[in-house]
Structures are given as C-alpha cells and as structure tokens.
Amino acid sequence: MRGPANAEEASATTPRRGSIRLGLLGCGTVGGGVLELCAANARWLEGRVGAPLEVRRVLVRDPRKERVAACDPSWITTRPEDVVDDPEIDIVVEVMGGEEAALELVERAIAAGKGVVTANKLLLAKHGPRLVDLAIARGTDLAFEGAVGGGIPIIRTLREAFASDWVERLAGIVNGTCNYVLGRMREGGLGLDEAVREAQAKGYAEADPSLDTGGHDAAHKLCVLAMLAFGARVPASALHVEGIEGIEERDHRYAERFGYVIKHLAIGRDFGDAIELRVHPTLIPKTSVLANVSGVLNAILLEGRALGPCMLYGRGAGDLPTAVSVVSDILDVGRSIVAGASGLLTRGIAMEPRPLKPQEDVETRYYLRLSAPERPGLMARIAGGLGELGVSLEQMVQPERPTAPGDPVDIVVITHVAREGNVTAALERMRTEGLFAAPPRLYRIEVS
Amino acid sequence: MRGPANAEEASATTPRRGSIRLGLLGCGTVGGGVLELCAANARWLEGRVGAPLEVRRVLVRDPRKERVAACDPSWITTRPEDVVDDPEIDIVVEVMGGEEAALELVERAIAAGKGVVTANKLLLAKHGPRLVDLAIARGTDLAFEGAVGGGIPIIRTLREAFASDWVERLAGIVNGTCNYVLGRMREGGLGLDEAVREAQAKGYAEADPSLDTGGHDAAHKLCVLAMLAFGARVPASALHVEGIEGIEERDHRYAERFGYVIKHLAIGRDFGDAIELRVHPTLIPKTSVLANVSGVLNAILLEGRALGPCMLYGRGAGDLPTAVSVVSDILDVGRSIVAGASGLLTRGIAMEPRPLKPQEDVETRYYLRLSAPERPGLMARIAGGLGELGVSLEQMVQPERPTAPGDPVDIVVITHVAREGNVTAALERMRTEGLFAAPPRLYRIEVS
Predict the structure, then answer these.
(1) Which residues of B are less than 8 Å from A304 in CB distance?
(2) Which of A429, B105, B215, B230 could form a disulfide with B243 if both were Cys (CB 3.0 to 4.6 A apart)?
(3) Interface touch A310/B153, C-beta < 8 Å
(4) Torsion angle of the four alpha carbons B177, B178, B184, B185, in this order, in degrees rounded to the nearest 10
C-alpha cells in the first residue's frame, strides 16, 4: 500500500543480516490482517526495519480452514513448538487470544530470547508485569500496542512521547460498549437494557455483556495503562470498579441540566507518594473533548506535568486497527533485533510498588441522586446531613414535581470537592435515619 | 522526575559505549527546558538510551546572560564550530530558531554525520525535504517532533503507528492563534480585530499577526505533515491558503444555525494519483471532535485506511511541551547511535513527487454568504445561477430581514458536494451580471 521505500539504501547502510523471521500464534482476523499488511507493505517495512520480514510459521488449530491469500500454506502448523522452539524464529506474534495457552507460549518464547508481540489484552492485564519482568531479565522485547486501545497509539505515546515527562493524570473512555450504551441512553432516550440489546444486535456487545457493562474490561485496560504511565504494578482486583448498570435514563437528563454528560471513565492520578486508579460512570462538562467521543470510539486524555493535556482518540477495538498496531510493534522489535539492541524498548517500563489510595480518601466532586418523600424542610435536612461531615454543596435541585403529595421525589445534589469517605458516611447516616425512599446514587464529577 | 530506572541492568546488556554526547545550538526557553529535563531524568533516560546522555557544548549569543541551573557554565561557547565541528559530539540539538544560521549549522552537522534534533518549524517547512535527503544520504538521523504540533506526538505517530497503513485524509487545527480568535468571535461575540487584539494582549498572537491569521503558519505545518503522511515534497507556496481575515461575526451565527462551527483547518487528502493540500476556514459539525478543540489547543485528525480515524490533541506550542518533544527525539536518535543503526528513523521518510490537485478540481460542500438587494425572485435567481453549472443546493436561507425595502440582504447557501471550479464560476457569472451588493464569500464544509 505504501509507495516504494528506500529498501536498497537501507541494505547498504545497516548491519547486514538475512531477514527478521516471524512466527505467528493464531491466524484469525487479526493474524490474517497482519499477514496481509506485511505482504502489502513488504518493501516499505524492509526499509524501516533494515532487513526483510519473513514469515516462517503460522500456528492454527484447524489446518483445513481457508486463510487469507497472504498466508502461504507451507507456513501452517498445528504444533506450537514449531513456532516457539524454532531457533530460526526471531519474533513470535501472539494473536491467538485466550489466557492459559497464550501465557505458556509467550513465556516459552521469551525464555528462548525471542522478541514477542502480542495483541492479547487479557494476558497483559493479568500477567503483564510478570511478562515484562521476564522479558527484561532475558534481555528481549515484549511489545503490546495492539492489546490496549486497538489502533490508538497509546502505548508508544506513553513510552516515547512522555519519556521525559511525568503523567499526573489520565482519563479514558476505554470501553466502546459502555460508551455506545450511554450514548444511546442519552441521545435516543433508551433504557439501559434496551440500549444493551441494541449494542448486542450491532455486534458491539457480547451475549454476556457483563465484562463490559460491569467495568471489568476497562479495569483491565487501566492496569496496563498504569503500568506504563505510573510504573505501577497493580492487579485489576485492587481497583475501585463500577459499571454502568445503575445508570437510569433520568440521570442523563439531570446531568444535562447541569451542563454535564455521563461517560464511563478509567481514571488514574499520580500524587507522587500514592496513585489513584478507579473505573466508574463520571459526569464531565458537555464542552470537554471527552464528552464528544461518541459511539464505540475510545479516547484517552493524558495530563503531563510539562506537556499539559494530550488526548488520543480512535478505534479502540477492531481487527484491522489492531493488526496495524501489531505490525507497528513488529517494526519496532525487528529494528531492535537488526540493531543488536534487543530489550531496549521493554527495559523502559520501570515498575515499582506504588501504594494505591483507598477509595474513601479520593477527593473529587459528586453528583448525588436522592429519593425521599416530599415534605417541608427536606432540602435543609439533606444539606445539613452533608454539611455535618464537611461536605459543602454547589447546587441542589428538585428537578421534577411529585406525582402526589408525600410521594418520593428526586433531589439532585452537586457537591464541591469533598473526601469520598465523608460523602458516603453522610449518606449512610441519613439512610439509617430513614430519610430515603430508595438507595442513594453517587456518581463522581471530573471537571477537566 | 521519573522514578529510578534500570540504568544498571541497561549497562549490563547493551553494547557498551562511553556516553551519547550532546551539543546544543541555543539556550533560550526551549533549550533551557531540554537541559533541565535531561538533568532531572538522567538515570531514566540512560536506561532508555542504553548510555548516559552527556552535554558537551551549548552555543549562545550572549555568554554573560543568566542560564538555567542545569546549564554548566563550562559548556557555554559563542563559536558554532565548537558544536558542529567537534568530532566528539554525537547529537546536535538545534533550538536556536531562525532560518539562515540554523540551516547552515544543521547542514554542517548532518555532513559531519551527527544526529540532528531540531524544533525549528520554519527550517523544516522551508528546507525539510532537502535536509531529510541529506540525512538519508549521510546515513544519519534528523528528528523534528518539536517542530510541529509542540507537545503533540504527531511525527512519531505518522512515522511509527501508521507504518503499515495509508493515511487517506488529515484535518488539523494547527494554529492556536486562529483557533483562539475564531473561538472568541463565536463565543464572545467579538469582532475579528477585537479578538486579535485580545489574543495579542494574552501573548497568543504576535505584534504582526499576519503569519498566523493569514494561514501561512498553518501552511508551513501542513507541508511538514504532508511529507510524513503522504511522502509529498511540496513547497508551501504551492498550497491553496486562506486566512481568517474575511470571517465576520455573523458567519459564526449563520454557521451555528446550520449546526456548524467555523474552524481554521489544514486539510490533506491522498487520492493515490494525486494529493490535495489546502488551508482555509472550514465549517464542521458542532458535534465533531475537532469542533470542541478550544482556545489555543491544537488537534490533528488522521484517517487511516485500516486504522480508521485517529485524533491527537494537545498543546501545539509552548516551551515546555516543545522541550519534552525534543528530549523524546534525543532519546530516539541516541538509541539508534548506541545500537549502531544511525539513519534508520529518517530513512522511513520516503518522499516522492506527488501531483497536487488544482484547487478548482477540489470537490466538497460549500457555505456561501451572498449579499444582494432584496427583490422578488432573488433566491430563484441564485439557485438558478448555481444550478446552471451543476451546483445543487441543500439549503438556502435569508437569515435576517433587510433594514429597508430594497436594501441588501444576506442569502446563505449550503451546497451539496460540488466541484469548486463550478461554484466559483457560477458566483463570478452572477457577480458580473451585477447581482451582488458585495463580493460573495465562500467557505468550505467538511463533514467528518
């Protein structure tokens, strides 16, 4: 697809070696896309790497299945050892997905000193720090641009562009399913279940959507991002994670009234002595750049101490974007091998134990939706209950009239910055006093 | 600023060399920032490069001037040859700005086989292709992330993330002054001159703002982007360039009425057989991501054939963001040198002669603001005049009543996609027939 590259000049000036030999684990839509991109851009990639890329082996489960034209039948094998144990293979490209089998093969490839490129998010989220450690110890490279954010070059931006900066904050729309569902609720007036069913019908949500709508997929991605942005070695299970299941259509209407939209965000902050990592529905101003990221698109906002804000936006998933990211990693790892400098990319990921701030110590602003039977002095009672714990209010409204006198009404509160533990304690105290007709809802507000 | 890096492990596994020795040309705010970032992140950068970075020389004009604490007085020199002719210097960092002197020193550094990092936009826009050719021929690297888009990692994204993709289109808000002025006109209801004066007062516009408001700065940046995105060797003088000077406050009101905002965009398209490069005020939908890039921020939207849309957003200018970009380039170039693979980064910029589509052959949608004395049949006459040349209309409105009967009124036309030559020919024909009370205004519409 690219125009003619300077392959001849390349060969003339870089240390000569035969070729960079690739072994693929898997040949589904991403793997097939990788083979096609490598074939279509062969001369261009050769110029960039300093040696031709040569596919040696492609591991598949079913050798009789039809493959893309770029897949030479002679490469096909069903034996993993033909890829990970072949000393002639320089880079193992893991595009098989899943956890156990992929983990074992990636570990074997690293142990054999091969460069590894993977697009496996689950693998990275669960075993990323350990695999990075293994690669650093073995002096080889582990690259995974395709595993997070699909075609968004977030990994190399964190690794390269922020090399001399300090990421103070990140906030990302990293789950396309949640973003689609919230968008349809807000713009189409759909209920949550209806929006999820629509996402399923369009192929944007799984039959069991809970990994997405429960926030766990976003938490996995936040762990990988935190590894690069904050050098943090944090398991997904340690994060505060909320999904979008509790959001109701009226929350969108109320948020709109205050100039906000509700987005499902993965948020990280670095305070130096501790970091904050949390995944939850968040109110952000309608005019912020993240507010206008629509449909299944993803976006990640980074705040560097020196760079200031930097946002990357694009397709967070999809076979072709992921294949492009995998090829960009093959190029990086291949270039390191040609240069005799394997391991240099991965060594940049310097991880340390980073204490995680407890969620009750988080300080931000809050949107509270409280349901209580209407009576004189109700608003004063709520304001007083929050004030007792030092939570001060920016706004407090009763957006709708009750159906009949004494019926429960919604009271919506927007707080100033407060410690989360104080907000939840105040709500709990009022709840035990029988003030509420339904459990209070709390969503956080991010201002920038 | 970064936490402890794995500098010791780095030294153990990479080919051992003394250090990567830097010479700076200039020590203003960007240069000072580079020295400070290098000092503050020394161990971290050493781990990433595979060797320590060591500053040898800093060229300044006035040796008595106070410098940042990170600048050792013993480095200071006023003789350029101490930097570019010293065989012990590996990388020359050009942060002096200007054109002639910088060009001569960068050429000498490249000729001496040194890696060159520059943040000089003017130099790149005017001499980029030739300097890239020189670097490729000499087998050394020329890196310039800091020269375009300040802290936005657009150069490395085009070079690395899109390595196996094809950029079909780019659209960028690349001039902060124009973006600020248009934003204040739209949101603050200011006139153009008033908004420019405000920008000057805030330090966002030069005393002579015409390089920015005339679109020439954006055209320079588009040339550099086109070199990487389309492999195009195109002088800025060949581009179709319009500034924001003709925009009136009512254009913002009319655009708003149709659901658009007006942004000053640099636009590039690749049609395979030809490319399109143009800089002009553009109407884009209010809900598009570029529409919400406010103030002096910049954003560049890339559309890859495989990757789909990818947007990068951040501070397009500023000393600190630029310094971070310069250091990220020093890291890349230094790593290549340590690996014995100098020239590999730059060789990826494969330029070819690319024919530029004449502006009259551009096909897009148009916003036309026409002023004509009100009379029966006026709208029919305009619709007919456009229709005669095959330009079909989507909407046509007279947004305001005339002050007195027979006074000129504004007629605003939104066309369907049309060939620009036909639109301008139709307008010219109506103009010569004396239909208009003032020269017609034409602005282009981009839908995505």
Answers:
(1) 151, 321, 324
(2) B215
(3) yes
(4) 150
Residue A14's pLDDT is what? 42
- The 3-state DSSP class for residue A249 equals helix
CATH 3.30.360.10 fits B156-315, yes or no: yes
CATH number of B7-150+319-347: 3.40.50.720
What residues have CB less than 8 Å from A447, skipping those under 6 apart? A284, A285, A365
B307 to A294: CB separation less than 8 angstroms, yes or no: no
**Interface contact B320-A306, CB threshold 8 A:** yes
CATH number for the domain whose boundaries are A362-445: 3.30.70.260
User: pLDDT-derived band of residue A448, with 50, 70 and 90 as boundaries?
Assistant: low
Nearest by Cα to B448 from B174, B169, B242, B241: B169
Residue B330 to residue B45: CA distance in whole angstroms? 10
Q: Per-residue pLDDT tens for B21-35? A: 999 999 999 999 999
Query: Letter for the amino acid at A345?
Result: L
- Is A221 part of the annotated catalytic residue set? yes
Tally of helices (H runs) and strands (E runs) in chain A:
16, 17
Cα-only R_g, chain A: 25
Determine the Cα–Cα distance for residues A105 and A114; give it in Å rounded to an integer.
11
In the 8-state DSSP scheme, what is residue B359? Answer: G
pLDDT at B15 over 80: no
Q: Which fold has domain B361-445?
A: Alpha-Beta Plaits (3.30.70)
Q: Which residues of B302-332 are buried (b: 16+ CB within 10 A; e: fewer)?
A: bbbebbbbbbbbbbbbbbbbbbbbbbbbbbb
Bridge partners for B372 per DSSP = B409
CA distance B327 to chain A (A): 7
Active-site entry in B114, B126, B221, B263: B221
A34-70 pLDDT, tens digit each: 999 999 999 888 988 889 999 999 999 999 999 999 9
CA dihedral B413, B419, B422, B425 (to 10 degrees): 80
Cβ–Cβ < 8 Å for A409, A397:
no
How many Å apart are CA B209 and CA A183, to the nearest integer?
Answer: 41
B29 known member of a binding site: yes
Q: State whether A1 and B136 contact (CB < 8 Å).
A: no
- The CATH class that applies to domain A16-150+319-347 reads alpha beta
Q: Write down the domain spans for chain B.
A: 7-150+319-347, 156-315, 361-445
How far is C-alpha B141 from the geometric centre of its chain's CA atoms?
A: 21
Contact between residue B110 and residue B140 where contact means Cβ atoms under 8 Å apart: yes
Return the structure tokens found at B212. 């920015």
Backbone angles phi, psi at B379, to 5 degrees: -60, -40
Q: How far is A250 from A185, CA to CA, in rounded Å?
A: 9
B206 annotated ligand binder: yes
Residue of B nearest to A4 (CA): B350
CA-nearest of B232, B116, B224 to B172 is B224
Chain A: closest CA distance from residue B371 (Å): 33
The answer on whether B78 is annotated among ligand-binding residues is no
